[in-house]
Structures are given as C-alpha cells and as structure tokens.
Amino acid sequence: MSDPLPPGLHIVATPIGNLGDLSPRAADTLRRADRILAEDTRVTAKLLQHIAARVPMGRYDDHSSDEQRERIVAELGDRAIALVSDAGTPLISDPGYKLVRAARAAGHSVHTVPGPSAVTAALTLAGLPTDRFLFLGFLPAKAKARAEAIAEVAGVRATLVLYESGPRLCATLAALAEGFGQRDAAVAREISKLHEECVTGTLSELTERYFNAAPKGEIVIVVAPPGEAASASNEEIDTAIDEALLRLSPSRAAAEVAERLNVPRKRAYARALERSK
Ligand code: SAM
Fold first, then answer.
1. Which residues, other chains included, contact 144 with Cβ-Cβ below 8 Å and sequence gap of 6+?
2. Is the separation of the CB atoms in 163 and 235 below 8 Å?
3. Domain segments of the chain: what residues?
4. Which residue of 82, 106, 135, 257 is surrounded by the most CB atoms within 10 Å?
C-alpha cells in the first residue's frame, strides 16, 4: 500500500472533457485521500471508477453552509481531504475559495494538484495575445447588468476570457460587439472532446455566425485587447463625428466612426448626439 497523503486540503484539477488528461499525480492523490469532496458525487463517482479509486465522498458546493465548512476544517488536522469540481480546476468559476480560506485561517496546510482548466485551454487555441489576460468568468445573464459589466472592462488592455453557454452565446457576442466595437475574438467549444472546435473572427462576424444557431456544448469566448485606435481621444472622435454629421444622421455617423476608429458604438453615439445639438 502507498504512503498516506499528508493531512490537509488537497485541491485536485480533473479533466474538462478527456479522461486522458487526468494527471498521474491527480489520480494518485484521489486514490490516497481519506475523503473526497465533490460538487456532484455522481459525476465524480465516474471519474473514481475510471481510476479504480474507492474513497468515501462528500458533497461540497456553493450552497454548503458555514457549519458544514467548519466540520470539514475540523477534520483537516489529521485527514487528507481532496476537493474536486465536476470538471477542470476547482475554485475557477467553481466552489472552493471559502474552504481554502477557512482551512488556512485554521492553520491547516493546503496543497494543489494543478491541471486542466477551460480558461488556459481556450487561450492556447484562440491565437490571441496571452501575455496579459483577464478572466471574467460568466457575465450576468440580464442584459442591463451584462452591458454594465462589459462597459467596465472596455478599456482594459488585456485579452479577455469569458465562460458562456450555447443558448446565450449569440446575445453575449452581440453585447460584446456593442460594448467593444470591432475586435478579434474566438469561440472555443467542447475543448478536448470529440467535437472540439475554435471559430475565430471579429465580434460582429461571430455574432452573425451564431445568430439563430445556438451551438451545443461548453463554450469559452476569448476577446482580443483593444487596438491602438480604441484609445482614440474625445477630440479625435469629435472631429470624425463632425465630418460624418455633414452627411449622415447621428446614429449612422456614430456607426461609421465607431467602425473607422475602432471605438465602442455607444461612445461614438453619445458624442454624435452631443455634437448634433
Ligand atoms: N472549473 C472549471 C475550469 O477550470 O475550467 C470551470 C467550471 S465552470 C462551472 C464551467 C464552464 O467552463 C462551462 O460553462 C464552459 O464555459 C467552460 N468549460 C468547461 N469545460 C469546457 C470545455 N471542455 N470546452 C469549453 N468550455 C468549457
């Protein structure tokens, strides 16, 4: 029999679609843990069956109470407890950070077994800059809150990574196009699974591509950082708007300038309304 694991909390990344991506160390940690905490024990049971691990499981998810956390933390002094999520790296748009915080606060050790995550996997497919990226998780579902969240990061000079579902993909791409103007982007779908694909194009092209064609499966959207022109000053926008207003209505002038200067259409429209007064 192998040595027991050191007591404490062991965060274990699991595959995001291909069982072959479970690392030997992850499998070893799961087999040797005293107990495994899972988001959905039925999902994790399949993984454990695959590696012939027979370890008692418990549930840990976003609904776990402070009392449940305290009970788990009380065990960490002399037991090795592994935390997994349904897929990928725990804590990344998944439960766990409160448990890690509580374990640390109580002086227990926390170990990690790094591995697959859809964020980093999508970045490797998209062909967009990877030197600086901002992970946004899931955007709010409601249109107003989503537009606000998008406006908040419009000026961030980094590649953006978002999680999304098939039915909401088109609306989210349209909202991103509206908030950011023309930017390159990628939709990475079913990564590491049989039907893995990565479709690239501008946000408007991708919105069109998925219009009335919600794809199946799991999705990550990757959006390029703003181009140099996106930082156009108000003066530059005003000059372009003034010229366009000689020929066009405010909304058409805004659309033309947004496209040409690569600035969000909303920003150009606000200037067009102001200048046409
Ligand atoms: N903790 C996970 C990780 O490390 O990637 C993410 C969990 S989050 C609840 C689930 C979301 O991740 C999905 O809705 C999807 O946006 C993304 N995702 C997970 N697996 C994926 C895959 N194989 N292909 C594309 N996106 C995936």
1. none
2. no
3. 8-113, 125-223, 234-276
4. 257
- pLDDT single digits (tens) 9-61: 999 999 999 999 999 999 999 999 999 999 999 999 999 999 999 999 999 99
The atom of ligand 1 lying closest to the CA of 188 is 25
- CATH superfamily, with its number, for domain 8-113: Tetrapyrrole methylase, N-terminal domain (3.40.1010.10)
Q: Indicate which atom in ligand 1 lies nearest the CA of residue 163.
A: 16
Mutating to test ligand 1, I would choose from 216, 220, 221, 222 the residue with most ligand atoms within 8 A of its C-beta, which is 220
197-202/159-165 β-pairing:
unpaired
Burial of 29 (0-12, 13-18, 19+ CB in 10 A): buried
Distance 112 CA to ligand 1 centre (A): 19
Secondary-structure class of domain 125-223 per CATH? alpha beta
Per this entry, what is the length of the chain? 277
Q: Give the bridge partners for 41, in sequence order.
A: none
Q: Which two tokens stand for residue 8?
A: 């404490």
**pTM for this structure?**
0.86
